[in-house]
Amino acid sequence: MHTPMVETTTGRSSPMTLTGYQRRAAWHLKLLLAPSVLLLGTFVIYPAFYSIYLSLTNEALSGPAALNPRFVGTRNYVRLFSDGGFWNSLLVTFWFVLGSAIIGQFILGLVSAVLLRRPLRFRPLINAIILMPNAVPEVVAGFMWVGMLAGGEHATLNKIVAWFGIPSQNWLVTFPLTMIIIVNTWRGIAFAMILLTSGISSISHELYEAARMDGATPRQIFFRLTLPLLMPTIFLYMLVSTVTTIALFGLVYALTRGGPGGATEIIGIYIFNQSFTAFQLGFGSAVAVVMLAISVVIGIGYVRLLKVQV
Amino acid sequence: MPNGSAKNSASVKSADAAAYGVLAVISLYCAIPFLWVFIASVDSEPSQFLAWPKEWSLQNYINIFARQDGFLWIANSLIIVGSATLIVMVLGGLGGYALSRSHGWWRRPFLYTIILIRVVPPTALIVPLYKVLLTANSVVGGIVRAVMPPDLVRPTMHIFGFIDGYLGIILVLAATQLPLALWIMKTFFDTIPRDYEEAAVMDGATLMQTIRRVLIPLALPGLGAAGLFAFIIAWGDFLMPLIFLSSAELQTLPLGLFRAYMRVNQLDYGFMTALAVIYTLPAVIAFGFARRFLVQTFGGGVKG
User: Fold this and answer.
1) Which of B91, B119, B257 sits opposite A35 (nearest CB)?
2) What is the pLDDT of residues A13-72, one digit of tens each?
3) Looking at beta carbons, which residues of chain B come within 8 Å of A22?
4) Do A194 and B132 touch (CB under 8 A)?
5) What is the DSSP track for chain B?
6) With an 8 Å Cβ cutoff, is B113 touching chain A?
7) A288/B102 Cβ within 8 A
8) Rounded to two decimals, what is the model's pTM?
9) Measured between beta carbons, which residues in chain A are less than 8 angstroms from residue B230?
């Protein structure tokens, strides 16, 4: 009945039956998508908006507020911005993202990607070894490194540093933030390497040939050719790894549970502790909304950068 | 030019040696934690530290099944992650097809929403999600108590409950993995020409027949990739089981391992390392298969 102009003017031989068929097909397609919409709506979209409402209440898991939650307006946010624990967690998250995703994983991933372009004999083996930490479940990674970084002179890292004359220590207590950065770097080298390898291999071979003909040294080729042409991939990597590192929870929780004294309390752990240890769901939601906002802003940057065709 | 090429090959050799040196350090960094876990798991006197065993033994692995509920934990993990993966593959396949083929106004906003959902941190959703599941759980609980005899209420809630039940955690894990699967399947169907389906429709096939006979066989590689990613991420996930599961009967591998090493005063390193190896193995195997799809999941590559 409400056939759009475009469809009636396509000049097909039997527009009536075709639009009837098309309308039925479009309806079928919506039906196919319906279960996905229902699932995402219930468990992702609705909770995301619900968290904004919750952040404006004094909802709690126990105590009087649990039975009778009240609307408290922006009180949680006022408290949030004067809360030392919140600023601490933002700062810890910032150093964690900078140290592990932006610097550690990126540099080691780039070095591995460049060096593994050489036709080395053990290339497949080295490749597999670098990929392993990325495949291991978060809790196993945490468990492994609790062992590596333990105190006492028999502990693995202490034995290694003893060769360099460094005294034994309980690493997760003396350098907690540095240690979670080292562990997350370990976990993410592979991701940076894979993404950067694909970026490097899309650079034309002729450019390299031409550079070599002109007598460029490997150093010059890297800094004047590879790196500039790799910039879009590097930027994509920075965005994706920043978002995933901000979202991290299990790896750090399994290592330190945010301790000692909040030194490794990244924002995900702060939300968890406020909500499920201190039982303040309203306050935890306010932190979650801030985190959500940061991630969505980066996500919009990601969409724009990729110029995603949909 | 013999002199020049000799000099050249010498410089290639020294450059290769330097490359090996750097790569060896990176490889050791990556490998040492694995060496400890693996060696300790087959050591008859395992410790927290990397050491060569005096005596090799498989006793640690046997203990997981003989002295602990190893089978139960593995079964729980497989049931939960397997069901979530299956749901993701079915819904991702159907939905991805719909997104690829439709022209409605809602298509573009929907796809942007999917991409934005992928950047939403799960930790930002746990509080509202907990409230949603709590409500769903009390609804299911009311129904179950009304229709089931009292002694069967608890076991039934372990299956259909939303908090501390299979159904809740399966649906949550499926929902968190679905956006990536929808995206993978949408881009995959974009590469399949419509001629195949149109030919089937011309031959009088219904939509369901077309999906079953034509589209599923064509879509298998895409479904495989979508399923692998859903499996790997859900298998490694620790946050959701930590919040939504508590009963011993529903213990999964990540919870079992985490609770074992939180028992500060009675750590059994043989037990924990063997459990870690068992838990890691499926993830590493799946990752090996998924590796070649990894780059494509970030928006079809970047043009420099």
Assistant:
1) B91
2) 444 455 676 777 778 888 889 999 999 999 999 999 998 888 888 877 776 666 677 788
3) none
4) no
5) -HHHHHHHHHHHHHHHHHHHHHHHHHHHHHHHHHHHHHHHHTBSS--SS----SSB-SHHHHHHHHTS-HHHHHHHHHHHHHHHHHHHHHHHHHHHHHHHH---TTHHHHHHHHHHHHHS-HHHHHHHHHHHHHHHHHHHHHHHHHHS-HHHHHHHHHHH-SSSSHHHHHHHHHHHHHHHHHHHHHHHHHTS-THHHHHHHHTT--HHHIIIIIIHHHHHHHHHHHHHHHHHHHHH--HHHHHH---GGG--HHHHHHHHHH-TTS--HHHHHHHHHHHHHHHHHHHHHHGGGTGGGGTS----
6) yes
7) no
8) 0.86
9) none
